[in-house]
Automatic annotation (TrEMBL):
This is histidine kinase. Member of the two-component regulatory system KdpD/KdpE involved in the regulation of the kdp operon. KdpD may function as a membrane-associated protein kinase that phosphorylates KdpE in response to environmental signals. It comes from the Bacteria. Residues 41-258 form the Histidine kinase domain. It is found in: Membrane. Residues 256-271 are annotated as: Disordered.
Length: 271
């Protein structure tokens, strides 16, 4: 899997640089540099949670009987959280390869946006436990024509990021309304926001604003996956900063489903 990702990245560089007729030695050096940077980054992302799991498991098995109930629970929670983090990381890598190999074909249908927002929130509830989540969905939102499974993953990634990049305890808002024949959904946080020069690049594969900041585990893949999924469904996604205060805004638009029940009622068969 890792090799496939690296090869894809190398191929992409090759295509661009060949078009510009760059010399081969430079190209090989650049490919090699990318390959090793990628390996370092991915190994780090795998090893950080693994080290926590190993540490906590070793304490539990070695000193478990000597620890009180609260300490044992704490260690067990660490193991669970870090294993979940590993799981998300691997899911991200898989999603990315599926996207790039064309294996993702959205199965769209009429979906109630409030329902997908609800199920995505349910999935991130534990991750966002330290935050206040505010939901503000306009009344009478129409159905949207999307793949509910892919879209839930998109919301999950955005909410997970809001939790990661905004301070603990700060509010995270999800709001949605109808606009120009589409449904707009926004995820807002109160973190530092995104430097203006990076608002487009953060959707690139492996791009992270603070590449050196390894405190927050991440792959730089989450937003690339979001964009791939959303565009495959005929939607749009953009990043920006809040005007009212510091914080990021991720804004999605989704196509409305044709023949929405609320606005275009079926003829009453009894008439
Ligand atoms: P990851 O979170 O794994 O690094 P993503 O593709 O999800 O990868 O995000 C890419 C980069 O965009 C992040 O590294 C971070 O620098 C920036 N970013 C994403 N979401 C936010 C946010 N809510 N606030 C500030 N920066 C963000």
């Amino acid at each position: 899997l890792l090799d496939a990702l690296i090869d894809q990245a190398a191929l992409a560089i090759e295509r661009v640089t060949l078009a510009e007729d760059v010399d081969r030695a430079k190209l090989a050096a650049e490919t090699e540099r990318l390959r090793s940077a990628l390996l370092t980054s991915i190994s780090h992302d795998l090893r950080t949670p693994l080290a926590s799991i190993l540490g906590s498991a070793t304490s539990l098995s070695g000193y478990g009987p000597m620890l009180d109930e609260a300490a044992r629970r704490e260690l067990a929670m660490t193991i669970q959280e870090e294993a979940e983090r590993l799981n998300r990381f691997i899911a991200n890598l898989l999603d990315m390869t599926r996207l790039e190999s064309g294996a993702i074909r959205p199965r769209t249908g009429a979906v109630d946006p409030a329902e997908v927002v609800g199920s995505a929130l349910e999935r991130v509830r534990r991750i966002l436990a330290g935050h206040r989540v505010e939901i503000d969905l306009a009344a009478g939102l129409p159905m949207v024509e999307i793949d509910a499974v892919l879209f839930e993953q998109v919301l999950f990634n955005l909410l997970d990021n809001a939790g990661k990049y905004a301070p603990d305890g700060s509010p995270i808002t999800v709001r949605a309304w109808r606009e120009d024949g589409r449904v707009r959904i926004e995820v807002l946080d109160e973190g530092d926001g995104i430097p203006p020069e990076d608002v487009d690049r953060i959707f690139d594969k492996f791009y992270r604003v603070h590449a050196q900041d390894r405190q927050r585990a991440g792959t730089g893949l989450g937003l690339a996956i979001c964009r791939g999924f959303v565009e495959a469904m005929g939607g749009t996604i953009a990043a920006g900063n809040r005007r009212d205060r510091s914080g990021a805004v991720f804004s999605l638009t989704l196509p409305e489903a044709a023949g929405m029940p609320g606005l275009d009622p079926e003829p009453d068969p009894g008439l």
